[in-house]
């Protein structure tokens, strides 16, 4: 195992931060490393907004489901799929509207995710901790207004970045057989992997720091998806931002 692999495999989500700022040169390197990620056809269909203002972070905390670590971290990065810059580039040559569909939405979303993960690894290599905030999509219209996002831009997720003030347990992942297939997808392998993982997560949840729980991974998945699909408001929001989901 080399140093890079060791760093990646030590990843933990950090939700408590020390009162320590991030030097601007570090933040610049984190974002530049994000820019080095793969991007489809060099479209670079993403943007990132750094939020440091305490008042704005407080509002984002409220919009994201009262997650205190957004306030506590020195920098909250909002990663956005951004086809506005693509629209702008096209209009340098012809005054035409950018045609969008589900594929275009996916291009921006995937680009944002790839760039953000590069940035996360860069931040951790510099000694910082991070946690992704999917709650940025709880109230996307209000986030759009707060951050003044133009059409064809939407917030994919947030990311807290700062000096860690905790040492959380390393959360176990599915066994390799649960994610890796050769030649074809093997459903029987998935079933067996989940059963094995449930035993691992049963012990993990019961013994982890902060209080034990009697649960398993499959039970948590059942609880999460046993009902209405999450964030059904995203479809009308995305269409209101100019994404045609066809």
From TrEMBL:
The Nitroreductase domain, residue ranges: 9-162
CDD domains, A to Z: NfsA-like
Pfam families the record matches: Nitroreductase (PF00881)
Keyword Flavoprotein: yes
EC primary class: oxidoreductase
MF (Gene Ontology): FMN reductase (NADPH) activity
Xref: InterPro entries: Flavin_OxRdtase_Frp, Nitroreductase, Nitroreductase-like
UniProt KW keywords: Flavoprotein, FMN, NADP, Oxidoreductase
Superkingdom to which the source organism belongs: Bacteria
Keyword set includes Kinase: no
Family (UniProt): Belongs to the flavin oxidoreductase frp family.
Entry protein name: Oxygen-insensitive NADPH nitroreductase
Taxonomic source organism: Paenibacillus terricola
Gene label: nfsA
